[in-house]
């Protein structure tokens, strides 16, 4: 199966309000609630595409219980919770429906003790043996976990799993030292690690070469609505999705990761898994609910993705 790891999940709640006047009381027309966090989104997308997945999450308190319940009951995904004493965060997004403006409010994640960190590592060792692909997703809730991906990626590789790193900041900088098979930075994150600003396609390709020279076989540089640059085994291509009416782009990068994870699980060639990844991200942006789309819809979009070999 495809195992996802989310060290800093959340209860992801959205309040739908026509417009917001600061300092005034507002009653939402409706609200939505999903188990948030990049890995949770990846697992939901993998499940929607018809493949087996398990979500490993670091959780605590009543919000943590809610996250686990939603992953298992609402998403139908196997959940491996790692319980800590701190409280799982809630992210509340205000969506002003009149102008479709989103304002997210982030709570801090829980503190994690050294003993809880060791518990996380031990439980990961137990679960990773069942995985063909492991995705390491997002930031960590506590600076004590800054080296978490650097510690866990070698464990996954020793068990024969293909590893994907999708993070930024310290977690990414340290994690990439463990040489995961695939990284998925956006243009800003890629330039931040490479050490120079990426303003042209040539700049992007130079940054991709730096990743390869560092020992990363597959680089997927997300370009947002413009698609992605993908490079593997001496083959580099640019993938552009068809024009769509965007409803909610949140989680589209995670859906893209899900598409590539499935491709690596199946042993697909670079173009096949790129089409699936771009199509999954595009399908995600066409609906409000993160990671809920139909496989036939993704397949249809995949045939419309424009591929240019560079």
Summarize the structure.
A hairpin with a 4-residue loop joins strand 6 and strand 7. The radius of gyration is 19 Å and the shape is globular. The protein has two domains: 175 residues, UDP-N-acetylmuramoyl-L-alanine:D-glutamate ligase (3-Layer(aba) Sandwich), CATH 3.40.1190.20; 127 residues, Ribokinase (UDP-N-acetylmuramoyl-L-alanine:D-glutamate ligase), CATH 3.40.1190.20.
What would you say this structure looks like, in words?
The protein is α/β, with parallel strands linked by helices. The chain has 2 domains: 1-21 and 28-181, UDP-N-acetylmuramoyl-L-alanine:D-glutamate ligase; 184-310, UDP-N-acetylmuramoyl-L-alanine:D-glutamate ligase (3-Layer(aba) Sandwich), CATH 3.40.1190. 38% of the residues lie in helices and 25% in strands. It has 10 helices and 14 strands. It has helices at residues 38-48, 61-74, 114-128, 148-158, 169-175, 187-194, 201-214, 252-266, 270-285, 295-302; strands at 2-6, 10-17, 30-36, 53-59, 78-83, 89-96, 101-106, 133-137, 162-166, 182-183, 218-222, 228-232, 235-240, 306-309. The strands form 2 sheets. It has a 10-stranded mixed sheet with strand order 5-4-1-8-9-10-11-12-13-14, with helices on both faces. A 4-stranded mixed sheet has the order 3-2-6-7. Helix 6 packs across helix 7 (201-214) and helix 8 (252-266) runs antiparallel to helix 9 (270-285). The mean pLDDT is 93.
């Amino acid at each position: 199966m495809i195992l996802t790891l989310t060290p800093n999940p959340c209860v992801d709640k959205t309040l739908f309000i026509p417009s917001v006047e600061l300092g005034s009381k507002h009653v939402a027309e409706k609200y939505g609630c999903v188990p948030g966090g990049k890995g949770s989104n990846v697992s939901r997308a993998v499940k929607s595409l018809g493949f087996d997945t398990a979500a490993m999450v670091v959780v605590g308190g009543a919000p943590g219980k809610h996250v686990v319940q939603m992953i298992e009951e609402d998403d139908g995904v196997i959940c491996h919770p790692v319980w800590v004493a701190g409280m799982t965060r809630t992210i509340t997004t205000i969506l002003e429906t009149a102008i479709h403006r989103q304002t997210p409010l982030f709570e801090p994640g829980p503190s994690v003790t050294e003993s809880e960190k060791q518990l996380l590592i031990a439980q990961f060792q137990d679960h990773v043996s069942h995985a063909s692909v492991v995705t390491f997703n997002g930031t960590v809730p506590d600076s004590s976990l800054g080296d978490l991906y650097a510690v866990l990626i070698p464990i996954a590789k020793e068990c024969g799993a293909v590893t994907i790193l999708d993070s930024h900041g310290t977690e990414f900088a340290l994690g990439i030292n463990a040489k995961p098979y695939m990284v998925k930075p956006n243009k800003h994150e890629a330039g931040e690690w490479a050490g120079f600003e990426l303003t042209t396609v040539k700049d992007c390709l130079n940054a991709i070469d730096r990743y390869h020279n560092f020992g990363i076989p597959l680089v997927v540089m997300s370009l947002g609505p413009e698609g992605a640059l993908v490079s593997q085994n001496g083959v580099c291509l640019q993938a552009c999705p068809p024009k769509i009416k965007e409803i909610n782009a949140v989680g589209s990068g995670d859906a893209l990761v899900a598409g590539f994870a499935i491709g690596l699980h199946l042993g697909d060639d670079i173009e096949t898994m790129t089409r699936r990844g771009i199509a999954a991200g595009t399908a995600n942006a066409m609906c409000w609910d993160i990671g809920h789309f139909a496989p036939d819809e993704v397949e249809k979009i995949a045939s419309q993705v424009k591929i240019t070999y560079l």
